[in-house]
Amino acid sequence: MSKQTIIVTGASSGIGEGVAKYFLEKGDNVVINSTTPEKLERVYQQLGGGNNLAMVAGNVKDKKTGERLADVALEKFGSIDVLINNAGIFDNKPFLEVDEAYLDKFLDTNLKGTFFTSQAVVPQMLKQQGGVIINIGTPLVYYGLGGAPASAPVASKGAIHALTIQLAAEFGSRNIRVNTIAPGVIRTPMHGDSSDKMAGIHLVNRVGEVQDVAEMIYTVAKSNFINGAIINVDGGMGAGHNLK
User: Fold this and answer.
1) I want to staple 94 with a disulfide (CB 3.0 to 4.6 A). Which of 3, 37, 122, 149 is the partner?
2) What does the pLDDT average to over 193-211?
3) What is the CATH number of domain 5-233?
4) Residues near 207 by Cβ (< 8 Å), separated by ≥ 6?
5) What is the reported pLDDT for 52?
6) Where are the beta strands (DSSP E) in 124-229?
7) CB of 51 within 8 A of CB of 29?
8) E-strand spans in 65-221?
9) Mean pLDDT over residues 224-236, rounded?
10) pLDDT tops 90 at residue 12
11) Strand order across the 5-8 sheet
12) Helix, strand, coil in percent for the chain, rounding step 5
């Protein structure tokens, strides 16, 4: 399989870092992104900082960040084959306590970040007659948890699911495929030390690992016939829960 150029947003920890590492190990070129330059530099060095790795610091809610990611990918590697819109935030707050600033925080990072970064890479994908965009969603868009109030982030993720289907429809005939991966609870710094407490919301009665998500993202990125799909990588969370 020929070497491709992969852009990964939100790559300074967790799923993003793991996905970047996975593609590098498979031999691809990778451009990593984070809002925090210091964390991004640390991951850049941990991943080897070689000739097949580049980095761009910046908040994806800003259109210019996506544009810089596209520019760096083209300048260093000559193509943009896969965009992984991983940058995202999640938190719990009761619906009646959500104010405009709190809602905007999720719409900015999750929805605007995904929207504008995709907008930045699609022209090059059209030019090269092919490309893949993979967004990160959540099974909670379709399967709510009453004990975990998360209306603001879930609303933003629901918009990402809808955007995925619409972009797949708009660009599928131009050989640009758009899909969403929806992870369950994954053992990452975002969940801190409490992730294993949520094992029971998955039918497999354990939380997921970053590798589980990275493997699926890689599979979808390299496939030629998956488009407009919302793929749960959730240990059966979307199908039910493991009650004790």
Assistant:
1) 149
2) 87
3) 3.40.50.720
4) 184, 185, 186, 187, 191, 195, 196, 198, 199, 235
5) 98
6) 131-136, 176-183
7) no
8) 82-85, 131-136, 176-183
9) 97
10) yes
11) 53-57, 29-34, 5-8, 82-85, 131-136, 176-183, 230-233
12) 50, 15, 35
Domain spans in the chain, listed from the N-terminal domain onward: 5-233
CB 17 within 8 A of CB 53: no
Coil, helix or strand for 155?
Answer: helix
Report how far apart, in Å, the C-alpha atoms of 64 and of each of 57, 91, 106, 119 are: 11, 26, 19, 11
Q: How far apart are CA 21 and CA 241, in angstroms?
A: 31
Is residue 128 within 8 Å of residue 149, measured between CB atoms?
A: no
**Residue 195: pLDDT over 90:** no
What confidence tens digit (pLDDT) does each residue in 163-178 have? 999 999 999 999 999 9
The CA-based diameter of the chain, rounded to the nearest angstrom, is 54
* pLDDT tens readout for residues 95-142: 999 999 999 999 999 999 999 999 999 999 999 999 999 999 999 999
For residue 200, the model assigns a pLDDT of 85
The Cα–Cα gap between 138 and 231 comes to: 9
pLDDT reported for residue 1: 63
Q: Which CA distances in Å does 93 have to 20, 125, 146, 151, 223?
A: 31, 38, 12, 8, 38
* H and E: helices and strands count for the chain: 7, 7
* Residue position matching structure tokens 């982030």: 153
